[in-house]
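tl;dr need the bound structure. longer version: we got a ligand (heme C) that a collaborator sent over and nobodys looked at where it sits. i said id run it. heres the input, straight from their email, havent touched it
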Amino acid sequence: MLKLVNIVLLFLLVWFTHSLAGEYSGPNRDAEGNIVPTPKGEACIAPVAEMRREHMNMLLHKRDQTMREGIRTKKASLTECINCHVTPDASGNVARIDNKQHFCASCHVAASVSIDCFSCHADRPASMFSQQVSE
Ligand code: HEC
Ligand code: HEC
Ligand code: HEC
């Protein structure tokens, strides 16, 4: 019985530290700390902290209406996210959504988030459709 309690406590401890550590998982970065793949543009559609916290609400269909009030920036278009955030690597290749080199997957894999958006939406810019895929 005591053993079981210990196991439960250990589990809770691991879970708790994990949830603290997992609260924010960042995208892939190079040695200089720049996001890879390199996003286009100088800045995102909203400040980074807001993007980390709110991008899911900005994007989700069903919450579109309710959230619209809260979005003071350009309309959050999934096509635009992909245009800026899915860019070719040094060899001119782009990562697909099932690869953790893909910007969206980079955090989601670590955070165990799975989204079905890309069964309908393109995971790379139209200009990249014929491009090689990175390993
Ligand atoms: C005009 C190009 C552009 C568009 C459009 C864009 N982003 Fe960004 N995004 C950037 C850049 C550049 C950064 C780097 C941080 C900054 O703003 O300085 C960034 C940063 C981020 C970050 C923070 C990464 C971190 O450091 O933790 C997230 C999350 C993000 N973008 C998600 C999105 C999503 C989701 C969309 C679509 C709703 C989107 N972005 C649209 C250019 C863009
Ligand atoms: C069953 C197919 C399907 C799925 C799955 C789907 N969408 Fe869409 N989505 C559409 C269609 C169709 C449109 C309207 C056409 C367009 O504008 O691309 C659309 C439009 C959008 C738009 C507005 C247009 C744009 O480019 O921004 C956003 C934002 C969006 N979807 C986000 C999402 C997100 C986030 C997910 C995953 C949580 C998702 N969608 C999953 C079919 C889908
Ligand atoms: C900085 C890390 C990070 C980046 C980069 C990122 N996400 Fe997320 N995303 C998360 C986290 C963490 C969650 C889960 C949040 C939660 O469950 O409260 C999430 C959740 C989501 C959800 C909601 C999933 C659901 O079913 O509730 C959508 C949609 C989404 N992200 C879309 C995107 C798209 C599209 C991109 C790329 C343009 C992207 N994210 C990039 C961290 C990130």
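gonna send this back to them w/ a short note. The mean pLDDT is 82.
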